[in-house]
Design goal:
With 428 residues, the chain is of the alpha/beta class. It has helices spanning 17-28, 59-72, 167-171, 221-228, 257-260, 267-281, 299-312, 363-370, 409-426; strands spanning 2-3, 6-7, 10-13, 33-36, 51-52, 57-58, 76-79, 82-90, 93-100, 124-125, 134-135, 138-139, 151-152, 184-190, 192-195, 200-201, 218-220, 248-255, 286-291, 314-317, 319-325, 332-337, 343-348, 350-355, 357-358, 397-399. It has two domains: 2-101 and 183-199 and 359-426, 3-Layer(bba) Sandwich (FAD/NAD(P)-binding domain), CATH 3.50.50; 201-356, FAD/NAD(P)-binding domain (3-Layer(bba) Sandwich). The chain has a five-stranded parallel beta sheet with strand order 7-4-3-15-26, with helices on one face. A five-stranded parallel beta sheet has the order 17-24-18-19-20. The longest helix is centred in the C-terminal third of the chain and has 18 residues, at 409-426.
């Protein structure tokens, strides 16, 4: 659709909460929105959470209605398993080249019965579940993922490796499996672009002092999220890898902050959220929270902090933290220096690492494709940091959510709203 020579359609890259919010608002104005998502599902990182702070609201209850609205909108064309490869043109007249990978499952014929999974002879670690469970070569990332249509992992599927296997096709009574699907090269015409590609936590292997990968019961924050999730690998039961419930846990804040050189702003809050998780499932557990600084921004978060303290947790200001094994048994000792610079330690069964938030690993590639700048930390850079967080140096290309820098869900949604307001006021 054009008006005064400008194309009114919009491309939104990233189907997390910021991208979904922007897409739905733009679609409500009658504009065509192309929502491009790299994975096979929508909802982003938030669908890995069971609950979100500060009200401990059910994450699925919050996200699922928005996912359904995207899938049912006549003005949103959802392109999953898709990546932007080239951008040409300028504000009001962009030409976007998108590579859409084949799913090998017909999205119309498939009813989401999942009967094709079990016959598949291939078993792999499920990366969505932080490698805590197995998946097949044909799969959906987790129960409740939307669209509820599986895709085939061709790198590991026996048929695509030259073997005569069609176990999934034989199991499908709706003829939804289509091995003949091909990747597509799409060319889209839009007037504006929203980049909402999210973030990645830092790799805990870059902080070996915390024992990740060395000790069985050291978990990342996202691994712990999936342990608590009712649709996760343990169906919400918090158990160690030996099958036992932990009697004590240490939650370590700010993992990777020194390497990154900035505060990720949300780590303290989701560290406190984990106290709720543990006390809900294991009321008698002893919990130690080790932090260098506490970031409690805003009135609602202060209330959340006060409520958490009443649940029973020992808050420890610590530095030079190191996780070491016990002399005997499977537990661990968390050694640290306290506020008086004295050496201390606590013994625990479980350690949870709340890592710093970083840019996505493909951020540099995308910055070149969209001709936008990155800041010194690798996040997409706003044109005037003191004035706005959504406008880039490339006119017509906007950023929202954690693609711009670490932030919580509320701020990500607010930025998406601001981006939509900017597009509606300028793309006319």
């Amino acid at each position: 659709m054009t008006d005064n020579g400008n194309n009114q359609d919009v491309l939104v890259l990233g189907a997390g909460l910021a991208g979904i919010e922007a897409s739905l608002l733009l679609a409500q104005t009658g504009r065509k929105v192309y929502l491009v998502e790299k994975t096979s599902y929508i909802g982003g990182t938030a669908i890995k959470f069971e609950e979100v702070f500060s009200n401990m609201e059910c994450s699925t209850c919050m996200v699922a209605p928005k996912q359904q609205d995207v899938l049912s909108s006549d003005n949103i064309e959802l392109l999953t398993l898709s990546e932007v490869e080239e951008v040409q043109g300028n504000f009001g007249d962009f030409t976007i080249k998108v590579r859409k990978k084949a799913r090998y499952v017909d999205m119309v014929n498939c009813i989401g019965c999942n009967e094709c999974f079990e016959p598949c002879p291939v078993s792999l670690k499920n990366e969505f579940e932080e490698d805590l469970s197995q998946r097949k070569a044909i799969y959906v990332p987790c129960a409740g993922a939307l669209p509820n249509v599986p895709s085939i992992d061709t790198e590991n599927c026996l048929r695509f490796k030259g073997e005569d296997c069609q176990a999934c096709k034989e199991a499908c009574m709706f003829e939804a499996i289509d091995y003949d699907q091909k990747d597509e090269q799409l060319e889209l015409k839009v007037g504006a672009i929203v980049v909402a590609t999210g973030f990645e936590p830092i790799d805990p292997k870059n902080t070996p002092e915390y024992g990740y990968g060395k000790y069985n019961h050291v978990y990342t924050a996202f691994e712990f999220e999936r342990l608590f999730a009712t649709n996760g690998p343990t169906e919400g039961e918090i158990v160690l890898k030996n099958g036992e419930k932990p009697r004590s846990a240490a939650i370590i804040h700010c993992v990777g902050r020194e390497q990154k050189g900035y505060c990720s702003s949300v780590c303290c809050m989701y560290s406190l959220k984990f106290v709720h998780y543990l006390k809900t499932r294991i009321p008698e557990i002893a919990i130690y929270e080790l932090h260098s600084d506490l970031c409690i921004p805003g009135k609602s978060y202060q209330k959340f902090y006060d409520e958490t303290m009443e649940m029973g947790v020992e808050l420890i200001r610590a530095k030079d933290i190191e996780v070491v094994g016990q002399d005997q048994g499977e537990g661990m000792r968390v050694k640290y220096k306290d506020a008086n610079n004295e050496e201390c330690e606590v013994s625990v069964d479980m350690v949870v690492l709340t890592s710093a938030i970083g840019p996505r690993t493909d951020a540099s590639t995308l910055a070149k494709v969209f001709d936008i700048a990155q800041d010194e930390n690798g996040f997409f850079k706003e044109e005037h940091p003191e004035i706005t967080s959504i406008v880039t140096s490339k006119k017509g290309v906007y950023i929202a959510g954690c693609a711009q820098g670490p932030k919580d869900i509320q701020k990500s949604i607010s930025e998406a709203d601001a981006v939509v307001g900017k597009i509606l006021s300028t793309l006319t």
